[in-house]
Specification:
Shape: globular
Radius of gyration: 18 Å
Low-confidence stretches: 184-191
Distance between the termini: 5 Å
Number of strands: 2
Structural class: mainly alpha
Strand order of the largest sheet: 1-2
Length: 191
């Protein structure tokens, strides 16, 4: 899914990222954008985050027409939740430290970081990942943006993280049956 927005700046990207992010398969980008803000070559996969940097200087427009079909399966690099999360936190730290970072986006960046922490903690808990890592991310979310605790997913993640591993696994199996979503599924998204 993509955001149907015009003249999107960094604040817009941060506030609406979870409505549908940019996918690297479809953007049309001027060369000068990548010349000014190149990828972080020392990170696992900078990917779409380069557009956060580009949006510090240029406005982005989103075409709601689907132009790309992506296949999602259990072996996608996106399934490395903890590794991708740690990389995203590093990218956001570098974004904040960049000389072009607009101070007016500080609150949006904190809210984005908190939401990312909760979403990745939730994903980790739902696939049986380490509860300690998930609890640390929930704590980080509360530190970055205390009102994040008021969101239902945050409360559910906190409850799930508090359970022993076996109880968490049983709840996850039950939840998968309720939503009729098998644990390993393949689906296609269009962008």
């Amino acid at each position: 899914p993509s955001m149907a927005r015009t003249d999107a700046d960094l604040g817009t990207l941060l506030r609406h990222h979870f409505d549908g992010a940019i996918d690297m398969s479809s953007p049309l980008t001027r060369r000068e954008c990548f010349e000014r803000y190149s990828w972080h070559k020392d990170l696992f996969g900078d990917g779409e985050a380069v557009f956060f940097r580009i949006a510090m200087r240029w406005k982005l427009d989103f075409d709601p027409v689907h132009t790309v079909v992506l296949r999602d399966h259990g072996a996608n690099m996106g399934k490395a939740v903890q590794r991708n999360h740690d990389m995203m936190m590093e990218i956001l730290d570098r974004l904040r430290a960049h000389p072009d970072f607009p101070s007016a986006c500080e609150a949006d960046l904190n809210a984005f970081r908190a939401r990312a922490c909760v979403n990745n903690a939730w994903a980790t808990l739902r696939v049986g990942g380490p509860g300690g890592w998930a609890r640390a991310q929930l704590g980080r979310a509360m530190s970055d943006h205390p009102s994040e605790v008021l969101r239902p997913r945050t409360l559910a993640a906190m409850a799930l993280a508090a359970l022993p591993t076996k109880a968490r696994a049983a709840i996850n199996r039950f939840g998968n049956r309720l939503t009729k979503r098998p644990e390993n599924r393949t689906f296609v998204e269009t962008y």
